[in-house]
Fold NAD(FAD)-dependent dehydrogenase.
Amino acid sequence: MTQIAVLGAGSGGAMTANLLRRKLDADEADITVVDKSTEHFYQPSFYLIPFGYLEPDQSEHVDDLLKPGVEFVHDAVVGVDPDEKTVSLEQTADLEYDYLVVTTGHRLDPTATPGLLEAWQETDEVYPFYHYEAALEMRDALENFEEGTFLVTQPDTPIKCPGAPLKLTMLAEDYFRRKGIRDDVEVVMTRNAEHHFGVQPYRDKLYEIWNERDIEFKENVSVEKIDPDAGVVHGADGEKIEYDLYAPVTPQFGQEAITEGSPLTDGSEDGEYVTIDKHTCQHDEYDDVFALGDCENAPHSKTAAAARKQAHVVSKNLTSMIRDKAMLAEYDGYAACPLLTKKGKAMLAEFDYEEPISAPVESKMNWIMDVNVLPSVYWDAWMKGYDPLP
């Protein structure tokens, strides 16, 4: 019996495991998913919850998410030995595999920015909204906020869903306008890059929107530390940015079990990402290892939409390998980011390795699709391994 181990029960892991279970007969393969958490969150809700656009209850237990015939092991991965084909777990015996799928995602580390954790835990002004708890807490903070500087910053590290800080910034500006306090609020976002969004033509459209709405973008800002007592963000170049309500994006890294406990990241930038072929999602050294999503080094935007496309490629190619057939499926770098510009309007940015796909147009339909339709599709179709448009 072929043994398949999937590390991580997030978007990429859950969908890949369920797709494999649909493709492979029960007598062909055993599929085991390992994760240290039993809760799977709908992470796109984190920038919507603070404004009341989605209800807070946006999670499912992993056991309820995985199809019958997929075993779930609730344990933390501490290392991988791809030569011995074993996964070391924190509390239980080593897991042996014939094929491995790594979907461990990003590790959020608020301690990587001096002062961030203290500012979040000890004040009422700082909410790193990539954390579910902070997104919940930010609702009350927004209700009580009346004037001052609303600041969003991004770390120097790559981040999952690079559009999320822009969406939060635009939704906040619109929220303050609807609340009638926009004239009393400065809205500022920073990034350690020349532009706030990397892909054209969406970048120019966003600049147009931000200029019309007087949203300030500070370029090439590297956050060095936060002084919660003074309400100041210190940049690496000596710049100081004051804030009254602050939504920092937490620095993000690869999972230590993979970056330090395995050779799978050797050769990647800073050793943070599993090195794969960007089309097949197969590891560049170990043929029986695949990786997808935020944990690997393919040059695509780290979004659930990208992981969804990769899950189909991995499940098809892995099934072909098990059945001694050629791997024919290829990932083209597709990523999608619904850029919510204000309540009731959104622009869909779609692109692949080569070029943009959709037009930079704001519409009500894009908002409806993202806020009202997509969560149900995510839970009831994609994460269960059903996808009419793979």
Q: What stands out?
A: Residues 2-105+255-333 form a domain with the FAD/NAD(P)-binding domain fold (CATH 3.50.50.60).
